[in-house]
Design brief:
four-stranded antiparallel beta sheet; 13% strand; Chitinase A, domain 3; alpha+beta; single chain; two-stranded antiparallel sheet; 46% helix; 9 helices; 300 residues
Length: 300
């Protein structure tokens, strides 16, 4: 996302009383799940792929297991993934049957863990369903349009430079290029900047905040085709040639769509959590009660 666009999104979020990212909902909202290798259509719950005793394992069971981040298996081909997935679910069922036979499911500790996992899965599902209502093409376009309206045009320049170590050398270089020598050729010959030297000192387009202050101040005061006097920065001495000035192009909706969708998802999740907190009846019993305010003394 464009840094300016991202900053405006954060600003609008803070103005609405939101954190960005969603620190308030970080403990509740689910992380983005990695893409699972699941079929385009819902998995068939009637298609049995294996049995453990009398217990059937279906395509739908595999689809759920495939969402487990530990089973993504990057770099593994689809056939191997499926074999590993089926083997894992078989082992899971065998282990669960053994744990059941050992009466582990009856322990209070297991029941607490099971209740916690049930709550977590339900919250994840609820947040996903509620988020789908808020994240849609219309909402994304609206956010883009509203944010774009607040973006002021920002100027940028395209320039070349030659970097040398001392002022005396910089003055000699300035005299050469001002005297008619090709700037790019002189840069390739003497510049100490390894990042631009081979490109004839070309820096491309940049905004003022992307360069060190003495360099930026000089470049943004110059006219097109003008060559500067030596400019000192912490890197050495620069000779600058401005080649073009323009208003920085605004990023398009298509370029920012993924980032906007991520922002809308986070905001929707936080809105849900904040609404639940606001409307729920909650008591904290592990903290001392807030003392009632003392009434002012009656005047004598």
């Amino acid at each position: 996302m464009s840094p300016r666009f991202s900053k405006l999104l954060r600003t609008s979020a803070l103005a609405a009383g939101l954190s960005f990212p969603l620190a308030a909902a970080a403990q509740t909202a689910p992380a983005q799940a990695p893409a699972a290798a699941s079929p385009a259509q819902p998995a068939d719950p009637t298609r049995v792929v294996a049995k453990v005793g009398d217990l059937a394992i279906t395509e739908a069971d595999l689809a759920i297991a495939a969402e487990d981040p530990a089973l993504q298996l990057p770099g593994t081909d689809e056939k191997q993934k499926r074999d590993i997935l089926v083997g894992y679910v078989i082992d899971l069922k065998l282990g669960a049957q053994a744990a059941d036979a050992a009466k582990l499911a009856d322990s209070p500790e297991f029941k607490r863990r099971l209740a916690y996992m049930r709550d977590k899965l339900l919250v994840d599902e609820y947040l996903e369903q509620e988020t789908k209502k808020a994240v849609n093409p219309e909402a994304a376009r609206k956010l883009y349009d509203e944010t774009a309206k607040t973006m002021k045009p920002e100027e940028e320049v395209r320039a070349r430079h030659i970097l040398v170590e001392d002022e005396a050398e910089a003055k000699k270089v300035a005299a050469r290029v001002k005297g008619g020598e090709d700037f790019a050729k002189v840069a390739a010959e003497v510049s100490k900047d390894p990042g631009s030297k081979t490109d004839g000192g070309e820096l491309g387009f940049f905004t003022k905040d992307r360069m060190v202050e003495p360099f930026a101040e000089a470049a943004f005061k110059m006219k097109v085709d003008e060559i500067s006097e030596p400019v000192k920065s912490q890197f050495g001495w620069h000779i600058i040639q401005v080649e073009e000035r323009r208003a920085k192009p605004q990023p398009t909706f298509e370029e920012l769509k993924d980032q906007i969708d991520q922002y809308l998802t986070r905001k929707a999740q936080q809105d849900v959590v904040l609404a639940l907190r606001k409307n729920g009846k909650v008591e904290r019993l592990d903290q001392p009660a807030t003392p009632a305010p003392t009434a002012p003394a009656a005047p004598k």
